[in-house]
């Protein structure tokens, strides 16, 4: 027998609201009648829709120093078999073998605890997603492109290039990029003077409305002691990109004038100087750049490392051969970043400033030899080979490419000149 529950329907006593008999019959809910006419309560007049299963949360793991995939998967609750499947079954699985500290690897499990997806965030611009399907793990590379915006900055040297760049709102990277562009014509350690001016047109990269990174320097000028150096970024018809002055001469010279970041020179080239440790007259056949331990040291030019080692006098040292005529030497390094026989390119980091060997404090001792003879690194550039120029056939294309940019740069320079003139006028009146 089917059990029944009595249901009482309230009656509306209002005559106006009393329905017609036929209408009442049609509108009345159909209730099964059992056991002599008692109405059985329906199990559920309005059956609620089943709740959707709750989405499983992503388990994010940040790659740590010394991590490997097995350790990361284990922290997320998965085993080496899961590692093997993701790496071998997905087309981009080999990319998981190249992980770096700071990157994020996120894991998504399904209701049965099986690994459903892996998300490898390589950077803000690139993510690789691995997803389980009936055919195993597949992969998808998701890339984002930042928006490029052009900006400009003007700086006036009051104490150092670096401080002037910071006051102009430039990042460390952009300041160093500018120094590298002019590194063959300006020694930013010894040349800058109070009142020098710099102007830059450069790119900034934005992601979701926020600055993401620095872009390329489009054009720059630096006025030093009455002489202005100008550089434009240009990609020639062969696809090669470089910086050139207004006449199409490459800004990339054979050697940098200074192989370190902007620091102070503590001791110049001096063939008669008294050695600070041995207290004897020993020629100082180079330049000392005082800087904090760990400051990057750059290769002054392209070449091959002919010696890299340690001795009591030089400490950690690196010698580089540049062609047949030139050799540069870097002494008292804290660490060497290259080995003997290695090929190096200009501005490549070959070591860091230190105080190893016969040194009284952290500094780089830098020597420049031409045909086996020590030369003053700060003046030898005047005798070095001239920089390459764009071919005559390339010049019309170059001039057209820099036409608008040169006008923008000139407008920045003019604005600075006007402001300086106004400042000087106000000072004179005061």
UniProtKB/TrEMBL annotation:
The keyword Zinc applies. It is found in: Cell envelope. Residues 58-120 form the DD-carboxypeptidase/endopeptidase Mpg-like N-terminal domain. Residues 150-271 form the Csd3-like second N-terminal domain. Residues 283-377 form the M23ase beta-sheet core domain. Its cofactor is Zn(2+). It comes from the Bacteria. InterPro entries: Cell_wall_metabolism_enzyme, Csd3_N2, Dup_hybrid_motif, M23ase_b-sheet_dom, NMB0315-like_N. Pfam families: Csd3_N2, NMB0315_dom_I, Peptidase_M23. Keywords: Hydrolase, Metal-binding, Metalloprotease, Protease, Zinc. PANTHER family: CELL DIVISION PROTEIN YTFB, PEPTIDASE-RELATED. This is Peptidase M23.
């Amino acid at each position: 027998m089917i059990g029944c529950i009595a249901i009482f329907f309230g009656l509306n006593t209002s005559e106006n609201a009393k329905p017609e008999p036929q209408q009442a019959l049609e509108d009345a809910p159909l209730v099964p009648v059992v056991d002599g006419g008692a109405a059985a309560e329906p199990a559920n007049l309005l059956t609620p829709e089943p709740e959707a299963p709750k989405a499983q949360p992503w388990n994010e793991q940040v790659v740590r120093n010394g991590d490997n995939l097995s350790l990361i998967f284990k922290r997320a609750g998965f085993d080496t078999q899961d590692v093997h499947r993701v790496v071998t079954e997905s087309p981009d699985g080999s990319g998981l073998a190249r992980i770096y500290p700071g990157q994020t690897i996120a894991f998504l499990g399904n209701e049965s605890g099986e690994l459903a997806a892996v998300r490898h965030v390589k950077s803000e611009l690139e993510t690789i997603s691995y997803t389980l399907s009936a055919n195993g793990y597949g992969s998808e590379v998701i890339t984002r492109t930042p928006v490029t915006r052009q900006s400009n900055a003007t700086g006036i040297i009051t104490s150092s290039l670096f401080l002037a760049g910071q006051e102009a709102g430039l990042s460390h990277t952009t300041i160093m990029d500018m120094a590298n562009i002019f590194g063959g014509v300006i020694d930013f350690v010894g040349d800058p003077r109070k009142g020098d001016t710099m102007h830059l047109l450069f790119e900034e990269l934005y992601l979701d409305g926020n600055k993401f990174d620095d872009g390329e320097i489009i054009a720059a000028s630096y006025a030093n002691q009455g002489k202005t150096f100008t550089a434009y970024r240009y990609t020639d018809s062969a696809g090669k990109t470089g910086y050139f002055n207004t006449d199409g001469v490459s800004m990339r010279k054979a050697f940098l004038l200074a192989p370190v970041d902007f620091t102070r020179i503590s001791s110049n080239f001096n063939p008669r100087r008294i050695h600070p440790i041995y207290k004897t007259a020993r020629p100082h056949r180079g330049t000392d750049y005082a800087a904090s331990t760990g400051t990057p040291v750059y290769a002054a030019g392209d070449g091959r490392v002919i010696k890299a080692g340690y001795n009591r006098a030089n400490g950690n040292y690196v010698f580089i051969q540049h062609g047949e005529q030139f050799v540069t030497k870097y002494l008292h390094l804290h660490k060497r970043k290259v080995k003997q026989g290695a090929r190096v390119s200009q501005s490549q980091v070959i070591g860091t400033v230190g105080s190893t060997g016969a040194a009284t404090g952290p500094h780089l001792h830098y020597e420049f030899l031409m045909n086996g003879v020590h030369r003053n690194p700060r003046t030898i550039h005047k005798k070095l080979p001239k920089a390459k120029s764009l071919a005559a056939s390339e010049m019309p294309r170059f001039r057209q490419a820099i036409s608008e940019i040169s006008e923008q740069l000139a407008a920045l320079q003019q604005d600075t000149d006007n402001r300086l003139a106004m400042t000087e006028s106000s000072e004179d009146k005061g």
